[in-house]
Amino acid sequence: MSKSLPKRTEDYSLWYNELVKRAGLAENSSVRGCMVIKPYGYAIWEKMQRTLDDMFKRTGHENAYFPLFVPKSLFEAEEKNAEGFAKECAVVTHYRLQNDPDKPGKLRVDPNAKLEEELIVRPTSEAIIWSTYKGWIQSYRDLPLLINQWANVVRWEMRTRLFLRTAEFLWQEGHTAHATAEEALAETRQMLDVYAQFAEEWLALPVVKGVKTENERFAGAVETYCIEGLMQDGKALQAGTSHFLGQNFAKAFDVQFQTKEGGLEHVWGTSWGVSTRLMGALVMAHSDDEGLVLPPKLAPIQVVIVPIYKAGQLDELRERIRPMQMGLIERGISVKLDDRDTERPGYKFAEWELKGVPVRIAVGMRDLEAGTVEVARRDTKEKMTLPLADIVASVDQLLADIQQNIYRRALHYREEHTTRVETYEEFKQVLDGKGGFVVAHYDGTPETEERIKDETKATIRCLALNEPEEAGICILTGRPSTRRAHFARAY
Amino acid sequence: MSKSLPKRTEDYSLWYNELVKRAGLAENSSVRGCMVIKPYGYAIWEKMQRTLDDMFKRTGHENAYFPLFVPKSLFEAEEKNAEGFAKECAVVTHYRLQNDPDKPGKLRVDPNAKLEEELIVRPTSEAIIWSTYKGWIQSYRDLPLLINQWANVVRWEMRTRLFLRTAEFLWQEGHTAHATAEEALAETRQMLDVYAQFAEEWLALPVVKGVKTENERFAGAVETYCIEGLMQDGKALQAGTSHFLGQNFAKAFDVQFQTKEGGLEHVWGTSWGVSTRLMGALVMAHSDDEGLVLPPKLAPIQVVIVPIYKAGQLDELRERIRPMQMGLIERGISVKLDDRDTERPGYKFAEWELKGVPVRIAVGMRDLEAGTVEVARRDTKEKMTLPLADIVASVDQLLADIQQNIYRRALHYREEHTTRVETYEEFKQVLDGKGGFVVAHYDGTPETEERIKDETKATIRCLALNEPEEAGICILTGRPSTRRAHFARAY
């Protein structure tokens, strides 16, 4: 708590890294690109997990678990998928260590323990899962198969950043199989909606729902849908994807089913995932120069009570605070009483601000006598004196207000930072100026998209689902266009 | 459902494997020694996780997440631990694949993407965690540090069996750091008690709490405590371990703290874990020749309702069953209505028996008119006709009875199969005859323990905590002994 955080306006990236570390969310580990998720960060992730898991179960999905390793031959079976991930695969080649004859007390890889076939640490699980589904699916009666997995995956990224891009990350991956393309597509869209609802109602993050272009599509998918959020530095962040796999994996792994009519057909697949990257979105969308701003629904501690006292008063004050504390807990609010006698209130205030606790209650003897407490909200930093008599209801309402306010603020920011442009000149100006989403016509070709990316570092985040078809002219080539794309620089 | 299961008395091992597969708990994957945990099996594991996680949190622990990989140099730092696991480590040596120039469309490991330092896939996380704790612990104020992790780990076992011994398995691992040896020992014992309580109250598995001998101790621990259960074939199964690590890891990773008095000391550590092996214990302790027998507290489906009807009656029957179904659900009981029109009741009965659903309710029009239903309990296969009027309360009570009965049955089995012997002759007779725990004096030396193991395949499961000190004579050497050990053949 000694130094203040870097300012967002001065070095957004440094601000983010420092905040993630100082707030106790995560830190780099001694394994290149792998992070340690600390208890405070993990507590938020657990709330995300629990919420999403409930949503998946309500939409009929069951959890299962598939191996960490994928034999190379399986990994190769769907060629586009394999090609897409080949450059970032951690590979297990040996299964034993032995004493190093040259270095007493040290170990080395036992050259006699080489695997016949290398194992890939899963970068995603389509290959291992579809090879398993072959045994699970025979008839239309086995469909739809609606499975989700919570797991760790590894993608050997060269440049990593806590939560946003790490070599190992935690995620969930849904993998479903259906009798028809329509049903699989409906599933893909349903899960996109689940993600959007979670992002907006829980993360308080407004998102654009859309479909990826061919360049940005998941390797092995026919269509990739996504939700895209906007961070406070004007960059977009992909917060979740839902893929319609067509029959690609079914064909690669020969997963066929007997239809009602007695025919034999390949099944239709989907996969969809969100990851610990959402933790990065959470930080970057709402937090400020004093620290985290957490949406109350995901905050591990929703209310912190800081007693203000003179020497010798703490025991009595603690007793007198107890009814309020218990009242809040009974209302289902998570409360922390910070009664450390080793720190001063100002220090505590700053610490809980850094950690993003939505509501802080400061209370001293004089307050209690006046029948009031001082309440501060983290999002606006507003302080108010509230009557103790109905404090539980007030705080409950305040938490709901904060959740809504954070969302509205992020929505307002996104609206302010979504610009429709007609020319390439304007496009570049907006990107270099206020940033955000730039909504522009392009001719629909991968080449144009690539050139724009090379020249401006902006990618097409998605073709937004709510963007109407509209005749226009490509900002780069002047060729005709039928719809606008959401461009942005992105994480 | 076409073939019946192998009989336990004929081939216990085959019975186990077939049951795990046919009941839909798990299956072997295409990765040697790694299993796929199927939705029904995973649903049980989720209930175990949720329950244990709540117990850990109630005892003050927080969850965190540490990397999957351990750099070889860290792995080596605590020598005994490294030595103990060296022979079963999966090792990542490369981070990229490339197109195979010799085989178009295939990939090979990119020889230019060799890691400078190999990464071990964690067989356990002490090394990576203690290297992290070094940064977290400075002062006595940072202690105790009470952390748990839910994770996958890999131990390259040569002979594997679903749930009991697999190359990859799921587990939790608690890792705590304390200011004093006494406190760390108390933590070790507390978590042993948590495990024992979970085993007995939830798995319905009576366990012997004890301490391991030096031969069987966790590599790197000063003491290993364990809970040991007895399976229906008379073999013991270690169901959980809790280790007092002394200062071994603190010294290996130089984790010191400033004491209240201003000195500098190494911290004291513990670690403790249970794994998906508990699924194996669950199956082997209670199930029978017809299938699983699940304790109601862990059963994903506690009650199955099977409608008995003539053609055309199903819709009406479904409607009339609804109030009972809803009543059970409101009571917090998980209910499945098996209204498949494609299968006959007998088939359904056998299927739910195989899957171990504790209570089955069969109900037809005539029952409803008589105001009764037919209820069958899975554990005793007893059938009874119960009045519909108070069916919810009856079923609730029945579930509690079944939980208790399964536990009592397992306890009775264990008591019948725990034999105190005085001679080596007796010892071998009991082992080869009825099996189970053989409680015998031995001289306390690793050599004697080893010889007994070589000659009989029985190991010391533990020195039971409730076994009194008692003068006696070693069954093998005739030398004096101060306490009896629990021997058994084990999984």
**Biggest β-sheet of chain A: count, sense, barrel?**
11 strands, mixed
Count the domains of chain A.
3
Q: CATH homologous superfamily name of the largest domain in chain A? A: Bira Bifunctional Protein, Domain 2
* Strand residues, percent of chain A: 25-35%
- Gap between N and C termini of chain A: 29 Å
Task: Kindly state the percentage of residues in helix of chain A.
Answer: 25-40%
On the 0 to 100 scale, the average pLDDT of chain A is 97
Largest two-chain interface = A-B, 65 and 65 residues
User: According to CATH, what is the class of the largest domain in chain A?
Assistant: Alpha Beta
Number of helices of chain A: 14
The number of strands of chain A is 27
Catalytic activity (chains A, B): tRNA(Pro) + L-proline + ATP = L-prolyl-tRNA(Pro) + AMP + diphosphate
InterPro entries (chains A, B): aa-tRNA-synt_IIb, aa-tRNA-synth_II, aa-tRNA-synth_II/BPL/LPL, Anticodon-bd, Anticodon-bd_dom_sf, Pro-tRNA-ligase_IIa_arc-type, Pro-tRNA_ligase_II_C, Pro-tRNA_synth_II
GO cellular component, one term (chains A, B): aminoacyl-tRNA synthetase multienzyme complex
Family (chains A, B): Belongs to the class-II aminoacyl-tRNA synthetase family. ProS type 3 subfamily.
Task: Give the arrangement of secondary structure elements.
The structure is a homodimer of 491-residue chains.
Chain A: H1 12-22, E1 26-28, E2 35-37, H2 39-58, E3 62-63, E4 69-71, H3 72-75, H4 79-85, E5 91-94, E6 97-99, E7 107-109, E8 114-121, H5 126-136, E9 145-154, E10 168-178, H6 181-201, E11 208-211, E12 223-230, E13 236-246, H7 248-252, E14 256-258, E15 264-266, E16 268-275, H8 277-286, E17 303-308, H9 314-330, E18 335-337, H10 345-354, E19 359-364, H11 365-370, E20 372-377, E21 383-387, H12 391-416, E22 418-420, H13 424-432, E23 437-441, H14 446-456, E24 459-464, E25 472-473, E26 480-481, E27 484-488
